[in-house]
Amino acid sequence: MDWGSGITYLARTKFKGQMTAFGIKDADRFEHVCALGRPSSAVLFLAQMALQDIARGVGVVILDATGSLTQTVSERMSEQATKRLIFLDPYDSENPFSWNAVSEFRSLPPTDGIPLLSEAVAALYNIPDSPLSRFAAERMFTDPHATMLLLYELVTDEAARASLGEARALFESLLAENTEASEIISEHGRYLGKDLLIRNLMGQQESKVSLAPIPEGGILIVDMSKIRVYPTRITPLVRLFLHSIRAQARRRNKPVTVFLHECIRYIEPSDVGRLFSERSLAVSFTDSVHSEEDEARRESVLSYTSSVFAFTLSAEDAKAGERIFYPYLAPEELTALPEGEVAVALTVDGVRAKPFLASAQPLPPHQGVSPNDLLIQSRLRYATPRMKVEEALRKKNNETEKDKNKDGDPGSFSDAFRSIFAKGAVTPTPPATPPPTPKPVERVAPAAIPTKTKEISEDTLRHMLYVSPISL
Where is this region: Disordered (predicted)? Predict the structure, then answer.
């Protein structure tokens, strides 16, 4: 792996009368890189960086919420590079990949692994890192069969709590001291333990996927484009992958370059400082703002980001662009940049240089690699058929219909659907008071049978039609 003295080339600018490529040093990439503005240009920019890292054997992680970065990079990877690739599609419910994330932390010494795992548990359940998350982390770390669902099981399942033995009293005292956290765990844990897609990913005890090779030049691509409309699904995946790769980079003491495409909004706010201060992770990201909460989250991340590249900013991005590029470039200039042109605020030796304009670099040509073929290959290596996964989970949890329908737990939609059409479904009991008897319908008398018509004589008809003259 070539890291430390290298340069990642980013764009071209006019220097001494000719267009010259320029880049960023490896050391400055730990200050992180952001691409704002036109999404298509931002994706090409990140792809350019990722392909250079892959070519020189640096460990690369791509978490992609839209799929565009995945396709751009995978189509241009060399055949040799694909041998180092782990390509995961979390939406493939029939073939969930086998990954017990706890195993990524167990490979570290307890003094390092347990604190990192505690922070991962806190981020996953959206609670503060506390003695409660630390208790769960210690149990997960020492139990080879434990998964990231353990904390939810301990909070909501009496049988799981009984398995703690002498430690049960300590756990219940921690719950009593953290009633708000307990409620949050129950709420957020439902999305982990009840959503079949996420449960089948996070509840598996065995792992076919290991992130250990990533710091040694491995490549991980997680395409979450098909589940991006479900934030309760994509959020835990983004957080868990980031904390897991952080643990492996810390274990190997080697850097990993992380590319986040439209994933900033899913990072736990308290995690921003932890992850973006980690000197083993060099993060490059794109981000679009859809709400005030998204804007606040991005501003928090930008406070840890030194190099910024702006491509034709939208109205939502103009505020951030003005703060970064003022007074060198006006907001009107940033929103009117032609396609292929970029405003650059580059970090050089730890110091942000004066902003300038540059032109984007062309991408390498396609290598004839099909993303679908890569996905099929990874499925064969890392996935387990859904039926086997669910059978293993049933054996582990000893699920019964009674367990599924505890007080306050409506169960899954599929359970409710099956219960409606169950053969033994009980029909509702009729009410005690009978309904009022409806008024009988009156019969309409049949029409009288018409009699035979009788002809009227001419004299009679004249008499009937005679009208006396009116006297004036």
Answer: 393-413
